[in-house]
Here is the input.
Amino acid sequence: MRRFYVIGFGLLLLFDTLAQISFKLAGDYALPLEFGPAWLLRVFGAPWIYGAFVGYVGAFFTWMTLLRHAPIGPAFAASHLEIVSVLLLSHGLFDEHIGTLQLLGALCIVAGILCLAVGETESERAGATLEHLPPAPHEPPR
Amino acid sequence: MNAPSGGLVALLWTLNVVVDTAGQLAFKAAAHDAHESDGLQRWRHMASRPWLWLGIGCYIAEFLVWLAFLSLVPLSEGVLLGSINIVVVMLAGRLLFGERLSRMRTAGILLIATGVALVGLP
Here is the structure.
């Protein structure tokens, strides 16, 4: 189950980040913003917007697979790690400024994810069943 | 929030929380409902039930509500209020799916919600 979560949330983070960064690149490339066919042609004529599609679709399928086992409360919270990756990448790629509060917030999010990870490891070690879900047929009973 | 459109802002924000939470719960219900089948069969099962489509419908509605909301408040305020959604989804998961809220889990979720709020502060 640990592997399932690490791979699942890792993929989700990758797809979510890809979508956000691609949207930004697509928007930047298509500047100036105007509501007409010329702008749309610029958006869809560059590869970036397709990265955003891949990110959205990939994130959807990953999320629905994760939710098979993951409880929605902690999983929904954990999906916000995307904010940290986008914050760091937008600093590296677009020279966006990261303020003290934003840095503090990013640290809080990472600390929260660590709490969730430790909590799951502990409950698995204690032999507690994951949730309300019975084990899936292909898995050994916990 | 005390601008003349304060009532509308509050309404849109409430709608955002409701639609976001409903969407996530619908996705969880879809995944839970189909947890016994595998692979393509699982997707076929999910597609034949209303939950998945309710979730997707909520996503589309949320997109529109969010767009309207952000046209009235600055993005930072929007992100700030979005952290409330994390807590609401946690409570709803507890109530509707009986999800355990151990001390570590609750601490982790609240830390993440605080972090999201901090990132959103101007």
